[in-house]
């Protein structure tokens, strides 16, 4: 099952709209972030324990580490520079099927610049109708 973190409502063209986020909806971000923090700090965290949006919280809770947002942003930028992986290789096909009935909007607060995100979506054959960076 894909976590779409979606909202659905009527779009301007009259079709229903499905709104998708990028991180941990289309790309795998949380798991590589946890792995990088484990590597940097030489600690282990069970991924099953990472049930919050801010992964640094679990490192504070489990190991008393004070990891700031700038470090997380640096890790996310490195992830984009390396080329993120799709969360599910079947996503392009699934989104294409959904797009037959729904308008697809991508809404994201990613650290990646829009050109990088558009190129990633294109490379992975993810078609969409609207893109918004917040």
Structure description:
- The protein has 134 residues and is α/β, with parallel strands linked by helices.
- It has two domains: 8-27 and 85-133; 30-82.
- 40% of the residues lie in helices and 14% in strands.
- The chain contains five helices and four strands.
- It has helices at 30-41, 55-63, 69-82, 91-99, 114-123; strands at residues 8-10, 16-20, 102-108, 130-133.
- The protein has a four-stranded mixed beta sheet, covered by helices on one side.
- β3 (102-108), α5 (114-123) and β4 (130-133) form a beta-alpha-beta unit.
- It is elongated.
- The two termini are 26 Å apart.
- The relative contact order is 0.19.
- The model is unreliable at 1-8 (pLDDT under 50).
């Amino acid at each position: 099952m894909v976590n779409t973190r979606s909202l659905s409502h009527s779009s301007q063209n009259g079709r229903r709209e499905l709104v998708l986020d990028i991180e941990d909806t289309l790309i795998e971000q949380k798991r590589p972030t946890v792995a990088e923090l484990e590597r940097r700090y030489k600690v282990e965290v069970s991924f099953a324990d990472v049930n919050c949006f801010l992964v640094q919280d679990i490192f504070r809770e489990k190991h008393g580490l004070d990891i700031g947002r700038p470090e997380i942003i640096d890790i996310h930028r490195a992830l984009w520079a390396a080329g993120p992986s799709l969360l599910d290789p079947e996503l392009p096909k699934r989104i294409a099927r959904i797009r037959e009935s729904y308008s697809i909007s991508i809404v994201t607060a990613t650290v990646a610049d829009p050109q990088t995100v558009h190129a990633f979506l294109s490379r992975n054959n993810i078609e969409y109708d609207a893109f918004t960076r917040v």
